[in-house]
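Hey, quick one: can you model this chain's 3D structure?
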Amino acid sequence: MSAERQQWRVWCTIDNRYELVNISVGEPEPSECPVDPEHPIDASKTEFRARFDANSDLSNTRDVPTGTDDSTKGWAVGSKIQAKDGNVWICMDASEGAAIWKAETGTSQSYSFNPELTMSGVSYVTVASFIWPGSDESGMPSAIKIIGYGTGDDWQAKIVDIGQSKTVCECAVQTNGTKAIVDMGALTSLAALPAIWELQLKRSGSGNPDVFSAAMHIFR
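Sure thing. Here's the predicted structure for all 220 residues.
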């Protein structure tokens, strides 16, 4: 059920932004804007991004994918699922037990992480790494929110730009054994170009090991 493809991005000189182009392996470098072929592109900015496996299921019959929808189930980077929530989800990382999926449609980018993380210490632990496409390409987000569930009372969450070694945002998450939606606060150090971000979590207190699960949404 696989078909290897490749992803490029081209710079549209009319909209002044990057547009993604997915083509079959062996096809020539894209030479036109995928949104409107009449829009000229700046060929000097055309960039190859990655090869990926184009497995997909667009049947609207699947639940929103989680961290366990991984390579062991046939999914790979670039796989797409059109889920019951109406969004098309694309696989950003298919690592076993820790897959990352991003919603491709709607007014936000949604990332679904490993469903359960058990922690016994109070140091930050990286839950997931993902690519921030850059404000030049995707614009400035209006907010970043985390949806979390934990067996403990208090957690800390932060997003770190690895390249800049700077914190983008951080917040306290109080779950008390229930699901919580928390705005991650003021956004700083937002890179204009693509960067690697990490979502990091830690417990605020000591005691018995706690379990935490999370998803993150970047709102436009």
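One thing worth noting: The longest strand covers residues 210-219.
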